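Quick question, first post here. What does this chain look like in 3D?
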Amino acid sequence: MANGHIFCGKTAVTNVFCGKTPVLAVYNGKKCLYEAESLLAWGFAKENLFWKITQDGVLYVLGDTNMKIDSVIEYPWKAYKDNIVKIIVGNNVQTLSADAFNNYPNLLEIVIGDGVKTIESGALDGNAALKRVDIGTGLSSLPAACFTGSTNISTLILRHSGLVGFEVINDNQLGAVLPAEGCCVYVPSTYLNAYKASENWSCFTDIRDITLQI
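> Answer (accepted):
Ran it through. Tokens below.
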């Protein structure tokens, strides 16, 4: 434990802190024990917003808070954007802010937890390698031009118990941003027919029951 970092409470660190050899952290009242060799980096972006990156390139963002931080401070995990191939956003995070996950050159997959109710414009833009997006039950609407520059998405999973809408600005349809002909959209079976009948989603030729997704 000599090479580790020990926190006695979640308020022990309120500014950005990055360590590569953590042993024990207490986050939100819960002890988190990590093997140092399994992590590339970790820290607190702000109080109640904890992050870690595994050696195999998976970024976890965990917290019971809005993701927004002071605009002067860049998200600390962005220093490792070339290493990140997958992002997992915890169920208690509430918002994906505009600059949180844009322009990651090697990002292949993102999983968005059920607590996220808002994705701000630009949050997922410019990820040219991104193939799979799995969005939890909390999100009922996507921003206009969501995924701009992330044009290789082949799997979009929408878990919300209703028809997910998206803003339309200047006739900017989601299908004009995503590869509508090559993107398979998975939705809850109860709403499958609603998606297929929706004018907003009519450009997507492959909409399937979510139970069939791999």
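The chain is about 5% helix and 30% strand.
Helices lie at 174-177, 192-197.
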